[in-house]
Amino acid sequence: MSSNFLLRSFLSLFALAILAVPASSASRIKDIADFEGIRDNQLIGYGLVVGLQGTGDSLRNAPFTRQSLQAMLERLGVNTRGFDLNTENVAAVMVTANLPAFSTHGTRIDVSVSALGDAESLQGGTLLVTPLLGADGEVYAIAQGPVAIGGFSAAGQAASIVRGVPTSGRIANGALVEREIEFRLASMTSLRLALRNPDLTTSRRIALAINELIGLPTAEPLDPATVRIGLPRDFDGNIVDLLTDIEQLVVEPDLPARVVIDENSGIIVMGQNVKVSTVAVAQGNLTVRIAETPEVSQPLPFSNGETAIVPRTDVQVDDESGNQLGIVPETVTLQELVNGLNALGIGPRDLISILQAIKAAGALQAEIEVL
To answer: Can you tell me the distance from the alpha carbon of 16 to that of 19, in angstroms, rounded to the nearest whole number?
Structure first.
């Protein structure tokens, strides 16, 4: 059974699984939009991981690790200037984390640790106190703790094995929040919703649903990606309760018809609204097979000849001209489009070229996006 047949069968089953979902795919506002200002903030820091079993940075090849180690020891009262440090149990790392919205003092967050030098593994290491900075240069959290990695490496004299990425890991609840990001939600008089997939129709539907909930025309779509919500002047309720009710509203998002193609892996994803006009498609395969079967030429006895290898090349050309012109009828559903293309017996690679050709002919009413 060929790989093309298996992949073609998988695509057909995948398309049928998609089509089993009803056409009306309503979603909560919570799942398609975010309240502007309520977001995570990225933090970054530079630190040292110690306690490695000879798998850390080589200080001669990583001068920043040596400098950081000397500076840390000096702060602890140990003078190492002028001495040749030759330890491989220390690694310089970059520490990253996401500071959630409304995080308070003392809240713990997860951090990721990634080797910066030529360390082989961070297994068994402990991150020393590392300040985590925001985009404004201020310290918002302090990270420290043992590093847990998802991979491992082992080596002998003649063989070695590496699984996963042993030079990066995580510290669960490894950072303490030291500074809060001020965001006065309760004192705001207006809010803005940011759509994750901008669309004019979707933003208008969200505004209509919010106005129906409040009973006043307080929400208006500003553009395909933004909906502004103005609180009524006589609003005396809890704004958190209002936002909770808004998040639970159900609307039906509307997106343009789009075909996404990944030519590297041969993956094709078509949206529900993709349509084609009646078009005829012909697809032919040309296969060239070249086989090398060298033969040995042995000279006759006492002929002073030399044994030589004589090349023999067999070239075969198969032109599958039996593929006739196929008609893909005008469709209104994704199922008919997929069935019409699969009826031609083509693989994903050829399907990519056919879709692009149909688009060039003006018969595909959809946007093609190539990754």
So the answer is: 5
The closest of 57, 59, 75 to 67, measured between CA atoms, is 59
Beta strands in 57-115 (DSSP E): 90-99, 108-115
Dihedral (C-alpha) 223, 227, 228, 232: value to the nearest 10 degrees?
140
Give the DSSP H or E segment for 212. Answer: helix 200-214
Amino acid at 274: V
Q: What is the Cβ-side half-sphere exposure of residue 104, based on CA atoms within 13 angstroms?
A: 0
Cβ contacts of residue 312 below 8 Å, gap of 6+? Answer: 292, 293, 294, 295
Least confident among 109-113, 159-163, 194-198: 159-163
Pick from 278, 265, 282, 271: which is nearest to 324 by CA? 282
The radius of gyration of the chain's CA atoms, rounded to the nearest angstrom, is 32
What was the pLDDT predicted at 340? 64
Give the closest residue to 109 by CA, choosing from 181, 169, 172: 172
Distance from C-alpha of 98 to C-alpha of 93, rounded to nearest angstrom: 17
Angle at CA of residue 364, ends 360 and 368, nearest 5°: 75
Q: Specify the 3-state DSSP secondary structure of 307.
A: coil
**Rounded Cα gap, residues 91 and 94, in angstroms:** 10
pLDDT per position as a tens digit, 176-233: 999 988 887 777 778 899 999 888 999 999 999 999 988 888 899 999 999 999 887 7
Q: d(Cα 107, Cα 43) in Å, to the nearest integer?
A: 15
- Distance between CA atoms of residues 262 and 324, nearest Å: 27
> Taking phi first (over 0 means left), then psi (-120 to 50 degrees means alpha), and beta for anything else, what does residue 40 get?
beta
Whether the CB-CB separation of 341 and 351 falls below 8 Å is answered with yes
Cα separation of 334 and 357, whole Å?
A: 18
Q: At what angle do helices 3-19 and 334-342 cross, to 10 degrees?
A: 160
**pLDDT confidence bin for 313, thresholds 50/70/90:** low
Tens-place pLDDT, residues 226-270 = 999 988 776 766 788 888 888 899 998 887 888 888 777 777 777
